[in-house]
Amino acid sequence: MEQATPGAAVTLKDVAAASGVSISTASRALDERITSRSAAAAHVRKVAEELGYRRNSFASNLRRGETRTLGVLVPRLSDTVMALMFEAVERAAAARGYFAMVATSGDDPEDERRAAETLLDRNVDGLILATARLGDELPKLLRHRKVAHALVLRTDGESPSAVGDDEVGGYLAVRHLVDLGHRDIAVITGPDFTSTGTARLAGARRALEEAGIAVRDQWMVAAGYGIENGYTAGQTLLAAGHGNRPTAVFAANDNIAMGVMAAAQHNGIAIPTDLALVGYNDTPLSARLPTPLSSVSVPLDQIATTAIELIVNPGTEPRIRRATPTLIPRQSSGVPVRHARAAQP
């Protein structure tokens, strides 16, 4: 077999020469989009492997006007939900023959725009944003420039979006607490500039009103999505005298719920004996806490697959697609321990 020059990168020409075929035949045999099972194609692939040939997919895709690469923009990867969302996008992208690269932007809209431009400078075929704020300028700019994109987890109400049905999720969480007999229920929502925060609050309010429970504005608290935000909000709600504090809390994500747990412990309040608690997102830690956390589970893999579908097939309707969440009851809301353990993944 003819060998390539030692130390030099193996080229398609080298593979063709060593296989005894033309360059075009070798190219077709090594094209991952073509699943030829012929003996000749198998021979070429075997020779390529023996020579250590690596096909430059980026260059060949670029010649076709695409890179098979998607950019993913998240606020931060230290946020468990955002990290899990990116992993789900990675899996869904790989299943469609795409590679996903991530950039972080924090919470500043200008940093978000710069991070998006950095990804676009890499010639990505589309952007997936987990950063959208209500009234955000970036999705509007992408629509104006006709950049293929999709929003995940959050939506601005205009751009193609794959999200969980947060209003249904908020409703399920509070309905669960109502069904357990609670009437003094507080809600700690996410930031009011996010669709997740406003929708989960709307669902919670609907469950309260449906049950004939008056909504107490002082028990509807907007907070950030971090553990410290949950602790601060929990202190505000739980430091009051026994007659002035709620018996149940719906926290709009699991980090907030863990902060509430810490505030409850600080104030000598036992969960679930003195306070029932439900979180959101069903992060892996929620089932492993000393008191397993009841939480609303969001199908991230379904959301990721939908987002890529919206980019690959632009113009399909509906533009905004909502995946149905599921309540996972555990011990923190007062579910019997035997039931809670059965519900754990």
Describe this structure in words.
This protein has 345 residues and is of the alpha/beta class. It has three domains: 12-55, no CATH class; 69-164 and 301-323, Response regulator (Rossmann fold); 166-298 and 326-343, Rossmann fold (3-Layer(aba) Sandwich). The chain contains 13 helices and twelve strands. It has helices spanning 12-19, 23-30, 39-51, 57-63, 80-95, 109-121, 137-144, 166-179, 195-210, 227-238, 254-266, 300-312, 337-343, and strands at residues 69-74, 99-104, 126-129, 149-152, 161-164, 185-189, 220-222, 248-251, 276-281, 294-297, 320-323, 326-328. Helix 1 (12-19) crosses helix 2 (23-30) and helix 5 (80-95) crosses helix 12 (300-312). The longest helix is centred in the first third of the chain and has 16 residues, at 80-95. The radius of gyration is 25 Å and the shape is elongated. The relative contact order is 0.10. Mean pLDDT is 88; it is low at 1-7, 58-65 and 337-345.
Overall number of strands? 12
The coarse overall form would be elongated
Number of helices: 13
Termini separation:
54 Å
Overall structural domain count: 3
Radius of gyration: 25 Å
Content of β-strand: 15-25%
Spell out the helices and strands N to C. HHHHEHEHEHEEHEHEHEHEEHEEH
Unreliable residue runs:
1-7, 58-65, 337-345
**SS-based class:** alpha/beta
What level of helicity do the residues show?
40-55%
- The name of the CATH architecture of the largest domain is 3-Layer(aba) Sandwich
Tell me, rounded to a whole number, the average pLDDT. Answer: 88
CATH topology of the largest domain: Rossmann fold
| CATH C-level category of the largest domain | Alpha Beta
CATH superfamily of the largest domain: Response regulator
Strand order of the largest sheet: 2-1-3-4-5-11
For the largest beta-sheet, the strand count, sense and barrel status come to:
6 strands, parallel
